[in-house]
Amino acid sequence: MQLGSGPNLAYRLLDAVPGAELHLSLSPLYSRNSGSHFSQLEATLNLRLIDVRTVDDQVFIRYRKA
After folding, report:
1. Using CA atoms, how far apart are residues 28 and 34, in angstroms rounded to an integer?
2. Model pTM score
3. Of 58, 60, 33, nearest to 44 (Cα)?
4. What pLDDT is stored for residue 1 in this prediction?
């Protein structure tokens, strides 16, 4: 089986491995530098977790500037 990256990799592994689990990790730090492409704003922003809520199978996470 050839595996890609990101969501494709997660899907392939979860689909192929019986009983597989998905573990996600988020870091409360926004960082944009010359190597990232998500934003034109070059910045580092520390964030603090303020709320975690689940609705059905979705997780909503709220952060505020630290």
Report:
1. 20
2. 0.51
3. 33
4. 46
| Whether the Cβ atoms of residue 47 and residue 61 lie closer than 8 Å to each other | no
Looking at residue 27, what is its pLDDT? 72
Which among 59, 62, 63 has a CA at the least distance from the CA of 48?
Answer: 63
Q: How far is residue 24's CA from residue 61's CA, in Å, rounded to a whole number?
A: 12
Above 70 in pLDDT, residue 62? Answer: yes
Count of all residues that appear for the chain in the document: 66
* Contact of 11 with 3, CB cutoff 8 Å: no
Scored b (16 or more CB within 10 A) or e, 31-52 reads: eeeeeeeeeeeeeeeeeeeeee
Neighbouring-strand partners of residue 52: 61
Classify 22 as helix, strand or coil: coil
